[in-house]
From TrEMBL:
Name of the protein in its database record: Multifunctional methyltransferase subunit TRM112-like protein
Species in which this protein is naturally found: Desmophyllum pertusum
Gene Ontology terms: biological process: rRNA (guanine-N7)-methylation; tRNA methylation
One term of GO molecular function: protein heterodimerization activity
Domain of life: Eukaryota
InterPro entries to which the protein is assigned, alphabetical: Trm112
Length: 117
């Protein structure tokens, strides 16, 4: 699973009042070489909850200098887009554990990798 996917996950377990964002803990990390596409990254950033992305990146030790708040005019800042690309697209996490902090519930992915993204 990539942090791009993680950013869009929410717990719908009965009794969970606030299932977003999920905390994440990983066992293995795989680095993928992926071509940098600034247009794609810009479009994806617009769909993300930025603070949740930064929080998840910090949890897995991969924040790569991301600012805590989304910068204005990020679409035209190539250095920023490369950092975002690196965090969103290059790292793939294996054997994930997710938890809903406010409820103390924990989940583990059933697949080695979530292959959707």
């Amino acid at each position: 699973m990539r942090l791009l996917t993680h950013n869009m996950l929410k717990s719908h377990v009965k009794g969970v009042k606030n299932g977003y964002p999920l905390a994440i803990e990983v066992v293995n990390v795989v680095v993928n070489e992926v071509d940098f596409n600034p247009d794609f990254i810009s479009r994806m950033i617009a769909k993300l909850e930025w603070s949740a992305l930064v929080q998840a990146a910090q949890q897995v030790g991969r924040s790569e200098g991301l600012p805590s708040e989304l910068i204005p005019d990020y679409e035209n800042d190539e250095e920023f887009l490369k950092k975002a690309h690196h965090v969103l697209w290059r790292w793939k996490y294996k054997k994930d554990h997710w938890s809903v902090r406010s409820q103390g519930k924990s989940f583990q992915s059933k697949m080695e990798y979530l292959t959707c993204c």
